[in-house]
Known about the structure:
The complex is a heterodimer of chains A (112) and B (110). Chain A is mainly β and 112 residues long. Chain A is 0% helix and 57% strand. Chain A is built from no helices and 11 strands. In chain A, a hairpin with a 4-residue loop joins strand 7 and strand 8. By secondary structure, chain B is mostly beta strands. The mean pLDDT of chain B is 95. The chains are: A mainly beta (112), B mainly beta (110). Chains A and B meet through strand 5 and strand 9 of A and strand 5, strand 9 and strand 10 of B.
Amino acid sequence: QKEVEQDPGPLSVPEGAIVSLNCTYSNSAFQYFMWYRQYSRKGPELLMYTYSSGNKEDGRFTAQVDKSSKYISLFIRDSQPSDSATYLCAMRSIQGAQKLVFGQGTRLTINP
Amino acid sequence: NAGVTQTPKFQVLKTGQSMTLQCAQDMNHNSMYWYRQDPGMGLRLIYYSASEGTTDKGEVPNGYNVSRLNKREFSLRLESAAPSQTSVYFCASRQTDTQYFGPGTRLTVL
């Protein structure tokens, strides 16, 4: 069983929809949670970063962490065609500064 | 400021051939990483270097070697390529909790 599970999709939604992307994990030591966005044929780039539980909002993006359920989410409001990309969750423990564990990535397409 | 650069962008090898993937960063970061990305598998860590002069194995190190040449450069070597090493390879450097990725090398082993 993988430490981090993410539905690979693909996920296709109309422009303006609210998108929910999710990851589950099994390692209760994970404390730091990130979402990376990867455009086609490019390297991933950090989109959101949260520590421990709770919500973090940045413009149209909200990251949510539920440590009791070992579940993290990324919400995209008012989705735009430019949001079409693969979204990877990533996480690490306090001691694991050098070792991020990534989910498989979810390929998202926003249709105009 | 180029960030993280990787060469080559594409490569086709025959089974048994060797090659070195080059990576350089100009952000003065201590930590550097090599990942491979395969469909349905996400990013898997091959090797990392926490600082100049040190290297450590990641999740999938078999068949690879690395060299941290200096603070800027971190290379990945395939001594005897196998079809299972067909993948997209990403180099990254890290500052606090942000990893900065290069554009990737697409490698095909026939």
